TrEMBL record:
Domain HotDog ACOT-type positions: 4-116
InterPro entries: Cytosol_ACT (IPR040170), HOTDOG_ACOT (IPR033120), HotDog_dom_sf (IPR029069), Thioestr_dom (IPR006683)
Name used for this protein in its record: Acyl-CoA thioesterase
Pfam families: 4HBT (PF03061)
Gene: yciA
Coiled coil spans: none
Similarity field: Belongs to the acyl coenzyme A hydrolase family.
Record-linked Gene3D superfamilies: Hotdog Thioesterase
Keyword terms: Hydrolase
Protein source organism: Sphingobium fuliginis (strain ATCC 27551)
GO molecular function (one): long-chain fatty acyl-CoA hydrolase activity
GO cellular component, one term: cytosol
GO biological-process terms attached to the record: acyl-CoA metabolic process; fatty acid catabolic process
């Protein structure tokens, strides 16, 4: 499924063990989901192994609540010689009315890796 935010790469429901003292989901939990989703798209583009090298412009818009269905969208935003920047947006589907709530957004940069775990050129598009 794709829309203006890109491809839905992951759809997950946080567990009770993922909440903090405020009753919200830990920011680190959502960061890890974003990194997984971005890595899937980056590896597809690189046609092989990638590593996260930067996270830019991370913005938390609203808290994630227990019971939210969390959708992680991703799409390529820019490409370099060995790296690709993936825009990742996270949206919750909340409550019986299935209200859509924008949660967070960030730009994750991944570098393509060779068999020695060194940067390698991305394949031509």
């Amino acid at each position: 499924m794709t829309d203006e935010k890109g491809e839905v790469v992951l759809r997950v429901v946080p567990h009770i063990t993922d909440i903090n003292a405020n009753g919200h989901i830990f920011g680190g939990w959502v960061l890890s989901q974003m990194d997984i989703a971005g890595g899937i798209i980056a590896a597809r583009i690189a046609r092989g192994a990638v590593a996260t090298v930067a996270i830019e412009g991370m913005t938390f818009i609203a808290p994630i609540l227990l019971g939210d269905i969390v959708s992680v969208y991703a799409h390529e935003e820019r490409r370099g010689r060995t790296s690709v920047a993936i825009r990742i947006d996270v949206v919750a589907t909340r409550g019986p009315q299935e209200t859509k709530v924008e949660l967070t957004s960030g730009l994750f940069t991944f570098v393509a890796l060779d068999e020695n775990h060194r940067p390698r050129p991305l394949p031509t598009a």
